[in-house]
Amino acid sequence: MSYRRVEAVVVVLKWWYPTKSLRAGAVLGLSAIAGLGASVVIATAAAAPNTPHVAPPAPPPALSSAPSPQNSDVPGIAAIRPSLPDSGPQSPRISNADAAAFVMAHPPSETNTGAVRVSHVDFVTAAQLKTEGWDTGLADQRLLCRVQIEGTFTFPAPPGWHTRSGSVVYELFDARTGNLLLLKG
Amino acid sequence: MRSVEHSSAALIARSRRSTTALVIVATIVVTVGMTAVPSVQAQMYACGTPCYGTQAWSGGQIGAFTSISILPIYDNQIGCGDFCFINNEEWLSNQGCYCWIEAGYKSKSSQLYFFWAQNSGTCGNCFSEHFLADVPSADLYQRANILLHVYLQFFQVTMYGTDSSGNFWDYGGGFQPPTPSSDYIQIGQELHGNYSASAPQAAWDSNSWYTSDGNPHYQTSVDPNLQMVNSPISAYWNPDPQDSATGGTWFASCC
Fold first, then answer.
1. How far apart (Å, rounded) are the C-alpha atoms in residues B63 and B116?
2. Could you tell me the CATH number of the domain that includes residue A105?
3. Is A102 helix (H, G, I), strand (E, B) or coil?
């Protein structure tokens, strides 16, 4: 910008802000805006999704010293809200209708067409499933709600592997909490 | 006349003050708006056939370990006519029997949870996904340490970590595959669907494999031909295992 142009800008500014206090206010205002803008940009950059600050990694353990947790008491993930009163540890707090309604509203994401049908709902213990040849790894006495679902399903596979399809899947819910524990297909 | 001049001057002064105020408000709105845009942008992608940001290692071993940062990945696509989710995980496989075990954390229908899954061949009901627990907020920005290994006739999974308050957690499980041996390790990100997913840059560290004596060994090399990176996933090594004494760091982010 040439000296003449700067001079012209100063003349316009002096006309628009005729007193020193107005000019000081304008300078203060612009500084505040610049400062705010800079701080917002810095804060956004610090919280940017590509630069999260995370805990340091753990080293690999020898197999002899690795933790050996069991799968028997996992909570599962939030799914059906219990609707029945608590009548004791071996009585379900979700109904057949609750389970069927949940599955129809949230069909397994492996559904290929979206068209599914709940063909059976029953309540079993993990021990009973074991006698049917299905070892879930869950504690024997754990009460489960089993939902049989029919449709067209595609199952995930590791990178580079062919996916596989099926026409029936089962979902297991914790009959007490309504949490989803397992999908088998 | 004098009173008219007075009122004109007052009007101009008021106009200047309100102009300045408007400029300030507009600047704040524009600045905040522009910086907020990246967090709400949505991207369409074609991952009906899954997209990956993964690295594989081929060869005999009895297990694998990785330490993944736990981040708020997100996917809320529902009713998509295909399976839709995004996850960060590790796989241990036997290519001969179409068997594998996998574990990590996943976002599906906007629910973020820990899982492990198994597949034991090509039978009708060979695949199972185990939903372990919703990821607690205290676990975010911590680590999911994932150990997959062969033990006797089983594929075993152990996932453990420490939350932000220092509380230890762990999950485990396993199954008996037709052939209890492993020859393939994979780590990385998997995306299914067409829109809505987002994933900050996660890290896979301490990448290791196990010999039959049960001892871990850091990965020391990678085969670029066993790397799979499909858009919109971005993934890369930094450092590469051959330039690292601790198995390198694999990064993946999306969308």
1. 15
2. 3.10.450
3. helix
Q: Is residue A80 part of a domain?
A: no
A31-62: pLDDT as tens digits: 545 544 444 444 444 444 455 799 999 999 99
Count the domains in chain A: 2
Total Cβ atoms within 10 A of residue B136: 15
Q: Do B172 and A60 touch (CB under 8 A)?
A: no
> Quick check: A18 pLDDT over 60?
yes
Q: Is any Cβ of chain B less than 8 angstroms from the Cβ of A105?
A: no
Residues B11 and B78 in one domain: no
Gap between the Cα atoms of B210 and B49, Å rounded: 32
- Is some CB atom of chain A closer than 8 A to the CB atom of B127? yes
In a domain, A11, yes or no: yes
Q: Tell me the chain A residues in contact with residue B57 when contact means C-beta distances shorter than 8 Å.
A: none
**Claim: this prediction has a pTM higher than 0.90:** no
- Whether B148 and B157 have beta carbons less than 8 Å apart is answered as yes
- The DSSP secondary-structure symbol of A176 reads T
With CA atoms as reference, report the closest residue to B54 among B254, B239, B251.
B251
Q: Do A36 and B28 touch (CB under 8 A)?
A: yes
Averaged pLDDT of chain B? 87
Residues B36 and B64 in one domain: no
Say whether A57 and B162 touch across the interface (CB within 8 A).
Answer: no
Best residue of B127, B152, B246 to probe chain A, by most A CBs closer than 10 Å = B127
pLDDT digit string, tens, across residues A61-101: 999 999 988 778 899 999 999 999 999 988 999 999 999 99
Among B12, B131, B212, the residue to mutate for chain A (most A Cβ within 10 A): B131
A18 to chain B: nearest residue by CA?
B13
| Cα B96 from Cα B108, distance rounded (Å) | 30
B141 lies within 8 A of chain A by CB: yes
Window 9-28 of B: residues touching A by CB (8 A cutoff) are 16, 20, 23-24, 27-28
Residue among B144, B106, B185, B79 nearest A156 (CA):
B106
Residue B200: is the preceding peptide bond cis (ω within 30°)? no
Closest Cβ opposite residue B141 in set A16, A22, A54:
A54
